[in-house]
Amino acid sequence: MTQGPAVEAQSVVKHFGDGPDAVRALDDVSVTVARGEFFTLLGPSGCGKTTLLRCIAGFETPTAGRILLGGRDITDDPPNRRRVNTVFQSYALFPHLTVAQNVAFGLQMLGRPKAEVRATTDRMLALVRLDALADRRPDALSGGQQQRVALARALAPQPEVLLLDEPLSALDLKLRKEMQSELKRLQHETGITFVFVTHDQEEALTMSDRIGVMSAGRLLQVAPPRDIYNRPVNRFVADFIGETNFLPATAHAGQIRLRSGEVLGPTTVSGAITVAIRPEQLRLSDPGDHEAIPATVEGSTYLGTDSHLHLRLPDGSRVVARIPSLPQAEPGPAPGMPVGLRVAPGALQVLED
Amino acid sequence: MTMATPEMTARRRRARAGWLLSTPALVLLLCGAAGPLLVVLVFSFLTKGGYGGVELPFTAEAWFRIFFQRDIFDGTVSAADAHIQIFWRSVWLSLATTLITFVLGLPTAWFIATRPARTRTLWLFLITIPFWTNLLIRTFAIMEVIRNEGLLNSALLGLGLIDQPLQILFTDTATLIGMAYVYLPLMVLPLYAAIDRFDMRLLEAGHDLYASRWALLRRVILPIIRPGLVAGCILVFIPALGAYVVPRVLGGGKNMMVGNFIELQFGQARNWPLGAALSMMLLLVVMAALLVYVRAMAQEGRDD
Ligand SMILES: Nc1ncnc2c1ncn2[C@@H]1O[C@H](COP(=O)(O)OP(=O)(O)OP(=O)(O)O)[C@@H](O)[C@H]1O
Ligand SMILES: [Mg+2]
After folding, report:
1. Nearest ligand by distance to the CA of A41
2. Does ligand 1 lie within 6 Å of residue A278's CB atom?
3. N or C: which end of chain B has fewer CB within 10 A?
């Protein structure tokens, strides 16, 4: 999977407008995406994901920094000279062309022989399972079908990198799940490098080889989904990915303690810190458990298989624990009940703020 | 079944009301369009009167005279070269006008459609300003620009680019300049409407898929704005074909177009039937042109 870089951004800065009120859409972003990788850019709205993608595609020129494709500097190449294709959020299908003509467009522009264009188009239509609709116009297709045409159209010229800007955000949940696995399959079958943009963390976690988390024009952390989830580098990443409890704590003599003195777990740092604990890493035990932290139940939220239990700790801070829902007949922990709380080993994340 | 009856009556009543309401429009259409045409058609089959006007009997002489002429002395028949030449000049001048207005109008319309919404109205307003001025005055203004002692020649002479004034006035070129100027807004407005609806994101999509600028124009922009393009071409070509004022003022007496020739028949030549036949002929050419357009549209719609 990793045979050298497919695309690299080197210290890319992008300002919109100039002077003091310029928007810093990208603030010194450096990232290397490996060949054949499924790389996801994740971040809240307005953090610069689209801008980075547009810099790679060639629609925006970076204010500073360079873009490399397969090791070659393409910063100054226009979009039609970059072996990069984009799946647009709005699909941007050509309304005057049929599905097949849409898919063939890129190949025709590259001047490929007619026979090759036809063969590749047919293969792409089969790949996205649209052979039956080859002669339809885009406006006679459903959203999911249009999505597939956009994919086939961008894949047909066999780009070195495929850029996808929130391609699934316009689809309903069920179709979205379907397209997620479809995308994974397509990437697997074509072996093309995918750079995928989303602000849906679950989508990012399930699909990616690696995730780059962005905020306010900066790339905060680049890591595989497991590491992003279990070892977030800072509070923003921990908060943005999944649900997390943040607790003020002090580290001293190899131990992390709550402000009220209860031991949470071991550490190597010292001083005032914040720890992050995922709700599913908290376990309930008896109120009398000496190794557990005494807590008081404040309420619960039923989520189906699991429930969220809202608890108050001795130092006054509140945490949420995710526990399996009990059968209907059994009464759950009622508000006001004292419980013990254990932290799963290795679940504590010490964060720099 | 019983339920359907009142509903059907209501529908019938609505239909009758619809007809009743459209009566004024129908009467207007009959009197305003079909009526005069019918008069012209009848005139074209009558004999010319001595001092203008028409008289009986019915004859196809006028129609014959469009294409052929009879020698006064020996009665031999030959093609009416002068008439055919005038028709031909009208057609090619109108085609050239359409082409020029398109070449100038497309970038203009594009420019306006890509302005921010606030200034766009201003640009559109500027484009329509010529409509507020009398056609004759606009034509004389062009004359002022291109005549031998006019603005253009003075400027070129002053700059030392030429040492003899260019004889533009009273040539086909003058007619062409005048018509392109007069009909340009008719090309710009429908093009603007089409470009305004054009999704600019398609340009990025095309550019991303390796299309050069030229390929974008040919393969993406023009096919999509074609309805506006066709409308513009029709709006320019048809009135240009029947143009009267511009060729009269700028083309001079010799470089007549059909419109001037028709006027001549109803005026000095006192040959109303020929004038009427020529008018009908012009109408036929226009309808043929429209038919070609419609066919082309339908054809391409099927091909794509
Ligand atoms: N053409 C532009 N002119 C001025 N500012 C822009 C332009 N394009 C983007 N920006 C600004 O740059 C910042 C980053 O925008 P960008 O579109 O990259 O965000 P994003 O991460 O894609 O957000 P979203 O998830 O909402 O699509 C935003 O503050 C945006 O307002
Ligand atoms: Mg975006």
Report:
1. 1
2. no
3. N
